[in-house]
Structure formats: structure tokens, C-alpha cells
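User:
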Amino acid sequence: MKNHNVSITEAQDGFEFEFSDVFNVAVSFIDRHLTEGRSDRIAIRTTSGEEVTYGELAANVNRCGNFFKSSGLTKGNRLIMVVKDCPEFFYIFWGSIKAGIIPIPINTLLRAKDYRFIIDNSECSAVLYSPEYKSEIEPALKMAQNSPALSISIQGEEKDLVQLIQKSPADLEAAETHADDECFFLYSSGSTGNPKGAVHCHKDMMYTSLNYGVKTLGINENDVTFSAAKLFFAYGLGNGMHFPLWAGATTILFDGRPTPDTIFDAIEKFKPTIYFGVPTLYGAQLLNMEEKTWDLSSIRTCVSAGEALPPDLFRRWQEKTDLIILDGIGSTEILHIFISNRSDDYCLGSSGRLVPGYQAKILGDDNNPVKQGDAGKLWIKGGSTAKCYWNNPEKTAATMQNEWLNTGDTYYQDDNGYYHYCGRNDDMLKVGGIWCSPFEIEAKLIEHPKVLEAAVVGAPDDQNLIKPKAYLVLKNPEDQSEELEKELLQLCKKGLAPYKYPRWFIFQETLPMTATGKIQRFKLR
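Assistant: Predicted structure:
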């Protein structure tokens, strides 16, 4: 019997799910709103003036799924999306899923060689892209050994996707899939090698939407969400798409480059209630607010992820806006945030406590649990964890073991149960025989009012011993001076353990970062 049903029970430690034998997640996220009377409610607003109701969304999702089927795509085929934040992203993503096709949203900031690798690695049957990315996608298609049967630029005079799908039926029976079937892939940024394709199942978005979106953030149908992080990121995909869709809320889509001015303009105009940013952007916004005044009165919740939030940035944001930032940690493999602060339960400088539905363990070099308060490798277990890396059994075996995932992060848990970030496992420094967190030093440096961003790596001194080396971006480059270096040195010596102060200060215009705002310390090393 084709019912696509799910039974949801709320428990103290998270939502529990019982899925029917046939389950396609598009029925829960798209079709459900029609039967619950939301057809005329606004699902999507764009900063360019478009509005899409839940009824229009469902019809275009169905048309898109039918168009793919009529174009020769079949159940289990993979479809790459290099698409900006726009309604078409929703149509392609959910139309694929409903038709049993597997969408793969890809970072729009990559280059031809990266796209070529993903086209070959995913063995995709289709590539759809926004025309802005034509100069990288078309060379990638020519270089790839795999030749997708369908390749479409989704906007333009000849091949506008919305026009192409209008002749397709607006009704579509959901493909017979199962909760544990492959639903969509997300490729990692590939900052330290080739991108890895995390394979997510139909059930995964249910777990994150209810355990984090509903139970942790309290998102409901009256909310308006706005994410500076783009939809192709796991973080942005939840913020801007499946959290608001599950709740029947409205999402604001902005297809441009997020800058303080563009983000603040959108907040004033569209009045979101929940704003999702990253630490680097929050810092730039604070700098912007020193010269301009903005109306943030619509916002009830600010969220941060991508890189640990420095305590000083939290304090300055709260002083300036009267809002707190809920910092958390998530990953592409686990789909979204699994440790988070809450509006009624937060600890400055920590990532917070476990999100309901997830378990954690911190292991030492011997792979045994460390003592409470000691740092070690963070492993996470939860219902949204990817089933594997596509076509990469070695990395799968090393990272995913018995339903547990090695996050690659070093953490410790304090006596009150809060988790504290110490850096990536390969970023930790051993100074004088003692492990040292670069993030702790960076957070202290950012406390100085003239410092905008900081990154700390290990470097050999004249005796070839590893010591901290700081790379800094100043709010005003003209402030660089020997006197400032002395001030920063004293700040660190006064506020950190004696061995942790930087031995060198390097001033730069920018720091190397991934598209998600994470500092690429390996490039500085």
C-alpha cells in the first residue's frame, strides 16, 4: 500500500519516528501543506521581489519531476545542481526526490576541475545550473569522462526552467522509496583534497527539522527565516529550506553575495524572525554597525555555525543588538547542527549541549573515552548521519563506524555538560609538550578592539620547536604597528596559559577561508 506515512512521537531526548514501508520525504515536506490548508500561504520570498505560495510550490515541484521523467531520467539517477538561491532550486530539488531521482546540490563557488571531479565521481545523469556558473560548468562537462544525458542552464531566453516545465502535468505520484533509501548527496568543500559525497536518506531531513528546527529553535509556521549561508551548504539547506518547509513558515532567498549592507537591507525589508549567519559575517556586521544604524527588531533568534563563535563576538553582538547568538556545531555528514546553545540555556564560548536525538563521545589517542574535562576526538551518533561517502569505501570505513561518525573536531565537555571546541583534530598544536587549541588563542586576539579576524597555526622557532603564530586582519590596516603587537602580546599573556601566546604576528588583508567561513589553517601552515 502506497501511504508514505510517518508516525512521530515526541520524547524528552528527541523525536522518534516510525516510517511506513513506502516513504518518500517529498510527501511530508511538500504535499502535506496542501492537505493541511496552506496552499495560499507564502512559502518563498526572494529579495528580487518573487513570491511563491505553498500551492504554487507543490505544482512546480510536480511539473519539474514530470519533466525529468519525460527527459529520460529514471529512479535512482543522479542529478547535479549548481543553482543559486532561487525558487527553481526548490523545484529541482523536491521534483527530483518526488520522482525518485537523487539531487546533488553543489557549491557554486567551485572551479571547473572540482565540478569535473564531481560529475565523474557521482556518475550523474543530469546537470542543471544557473547561467552565472556557465564559464566553469561547461568546461567541466567537456573535461569529464562521464557524459550526462541532460545538461540545462535553468534561466535564459532559450532554456528557462519554469517555461520548460509548464507543459508538464501539475500532478505527480511520489516514487515508491523507503526511509533508508538514498535521497540526496551533499559534497564536502574539498578544502584538503577532492570533495567527498555524503549520501543522505529520505529520513534524514525529518530528524534535523524536528530535533533541531522545532525542538531546539522552536520554528513554527509564523516564522520567517533568512539564511546568509547558501542553500548548497548543509547549514543553509536546513536554514533556508527544509526547516521552514517542515513548519509551514516562509523563507527569504537572497541570490547575491552576502555583505553587511546587503544582509541588513534584506532584514529591514523582509523582517525575518530567525537569522542564520556565520562568525565572519557577524564580525563584519558589527564593524558596519559602528557607522550605520539598522532595524533588527523583527529578529527573535540569531544562529551561528560553520566556525566556532568567539566569546568576544557574542558579547559585542549582544551589547549592540540586545540579541544573543546561538552557536552550534554541525557537519555535512550529519546534515545540520547536533550540538547547540539555546535561548534559555547557553554558555558563552561553548558550542552548547547535545541537540535532542544525538549522542556524543570524546575519545583519546587510544580510542578510549577521555576523562570529563579532557580534550579528545568528538564522535557523534544520530538519525541524520549519512550512510556513506559515495564511491569512497576507504574514507567511509575510517570515518563512519557502527553508526558513529568521527567529526574530525577536538572537543572537551565541562562539568556542566557544555561542549567546548578546541579546533580541528589536525589543527591542534603541541607547545612545550602540551596540547594547545588555536581557537582559544584566536578568541583572545579578537578581544582587542582593533582586530577583525585571527588565525593561529604552529610554526617552528629557531630551535625547530613548534610555537603559535598569529595571522591577523585589522579593522583598519593603518593600525598596524609595533605598539599594537606589544598590546596583543600582553593581552594573550594576561588571559591565556603562559605557553600559549603567539611568538609572531603577521598582518594580512584577508584570511584564507572555505565558502562556509571556516579558516583554512592548512594554507597558512
